[in-house]
Amino acid sequence: MTALDTTILDAVGRHLFLGFNGTTPDGDLRARLRFFRPGGLVLFRRNIESEAQLRDLVAAVSAWALEELKRPLLWAIDEEGGTVQRLRAIHGSMPSALELASRGPSEVERVADETAGRLRRLGISINFAPVLDVVEDPDRHFLGTRALGSDPEEVGELGARWIRAQQALGVLAVAKHFPGLGPAGLDPHDHLPVLKGVSRKEMTRQLLPFRRAVEAGVAGVMTSHAVYECWDEQWPGTLSSVINRGILREQLGFQGVLFSDDLDMEAIRGRYEPETLVRQTLLATVDALLVCQHEEGAEPLLRALHDAVRRHADLRDAHRKSLERQDSALALCFDIAP
């Protein structure tokens, strides 16, 4: 096994955004952070007991990271409202995206602003929202009420308002799931969706909300784990240079931080060797790799990142450009104080 260079580890660890267990900044969590040196942590309900507890956790770990890692640690969460609301125990129920859309643009802006304010006060830097998938029938689609609607123009307009309101308070918005899960019949949490027979024309329609998000200055985008055969028959969106570098970066002009969806989802988990995941995501300009549910999956990725950057000039260059994009994002979200 290749000896690990700690200087390289400190840099490549920034590509990892990790889930974790527990509600306190205990020794196990600090040891995990010291080893992986991640770019950020992702919060789930399992980490949240009360507002005071969460604020103390974020503040203590953030202070430790500045001392130990010599750089800020990003905190991320899925706070969409409706069925995906990690802070329900603290703030109570929030309306779903579909319900907000039915109330009109001003309500979308108001709730996005209110949510961002709450996240700021907790010290959370990133909200994985809004969902910009175009869903025709929420009663039958696995995304249900998480989507803003079935009209791409309306989804794009409401999504842009959400993004601007959230980022005005310094909380990085992440539009998802690029290039759109609306035509997918299977949930990537449980299966690998393969979109057969979905035309480029239809997918161009699905792209419209993401185009509006980029125009609105969205700082983050999250990938989709589905296979879009009209563009790339081999790789799911998360691993596709055609989709992420070619369409998102070059065609739509997105220059921000690109997050993978959780690599622990069944659409991806166990299907690819860590070396393949790392090579494909770096070449596809994915900046942050989410490993949220299975702690054992992070170390093989860290080692693969280390070896990729050490051995391959093209991956080292992709890594360098990725860190530059991450550094630019810090200017948006690190005026936050708990």
From TrEMBL:
<dbReference type="GO" id="GO:0004553">
    <property type="term" value="F:hydrolase activity, hydrolyzing O-glycosyl compounds"/>
</dbReference>
<dbReference type="InterPro" id="IPR050226">
    <property type="entry name" value="NagZ_Beta-hexosaminidase"/>
</dbReference>
<dbReference type="Pfam" id="PF00933">
    <property type="entry name" value="Glyco_hydro_3"/>
</dbReference>
<dbReference type="InterPro" id="IPR001764">
    <property type="entry name" value="Glyco_hydro_3_N"/>
</dbReference>
<keyword id="KW-0378">Hydrolase</keyword>
<dbReference type="GO" id="GO:0005975">
    <property type="term" value="P:carbohydrate metabolic process"/>
</dbReference>
<dbReference type="GO" id="GO:0009254">
    <property type="term" value="P:peptidoglycan turnover"/>
</dbReference>
<comment type="similarity">
    <text>Belongs to the glycosyl hydrolase 3 family.</text>
</comment>
<feature type="domain" description="Glycoside hydrolase family 3 N-terminal">
    <location>
        <begin position="39"/>
        <end position="309"/>
    </location>
</feature>
<protein>
    <submittedName>
        <fullName>Beta-N-acetylhexosaminidase</fullName>
    </submittedName>
</protein>
<dbReference type="InterPro" id="IPR019800">
    <property type="entry name" value="Glyco_hydro_3_AS"/>
</dbReference>
<keyword id="KW-0326">Glycosidase</keyword>
<dbReference type="InterPro" id="IPR036962">
    <property type="entry name" value="Glyco_hydro_3_N_sf"/>
</dbReference>
<dbReference type="InterPro" id="IPR017853">
    <property type="entry name" value="GH"/>
</dbReference>
